[in-house]
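Notes from hallway chat w/ T.B., transcribed later so I don't forget. T.B. wanted the structure written out for a chain they're using in a teaching module, and asked if we could keep both sequence and structure tokens in one place. Agreed to drop them here.
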Amino acid sequence: MSLGEAPYRIVAVSAGTSEPSTTRMLADRAAVGVVERLRQSGRNASAEVIELAPLATEIAQSLVSGFPSESVQRAIEKLAAADGVIVSTPVYKAGLSGLFKSFVDLLDNDLLIAKPVLLAATAGSARHAMVVDDHLRPLFAFMRALSAPTSLFAAPEEWGSPDLGKRIDRAAGELAALITSGVGRDIADGGWSGYQHSFAGNATRAERTADAVDYDTDLMRLARGGV
């Protein structure tokens, strides 16, 4: 891909809720690093961040109803169209943010197959450093994404450390390499028919049809007014 062609699309998902948010700051730094790496190699690239905090109520409602709201669906479609994804979540009580997990629960199981993903998390203590690899990595393995080898974690005392910058640069380089190699596209396109597909709706290669919706569930009968 040359500078004259359509840019690679990097989408970062931040589940930070404070203002300012260190979770968003980590996502921003990673996104800037990936874009810079791509541009240094002669590729054009753009990045945007999906903030989950403003969507929190709609995410909860979408989980209950079984159907993403319009705003949540737009966020999902941005992930589907992304060439590379960065996910950044705060850690609470040795676990992932509930907001972040709820959003992931809304994703079609096929949405991120072979999608290059960079994993990141923040916390108030370095005691939570392993949550990224203990919780995030298995989650995205289940989603069948291609997670970059280097994950990112930042506790308060690390923000001024050169080591954090080095890790961000290394992780950004890994994600850029996965994106430009085309390996994700080759894996997804070459093996698509062989995957066990659980859903139809949001996946880029899945057909959306009315047949994919079970209208005979209690929830759907309730949505129809109890008919």
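Follow-up for T.B.: The radius of gyration is 18 Å. Might be a good example for the class.
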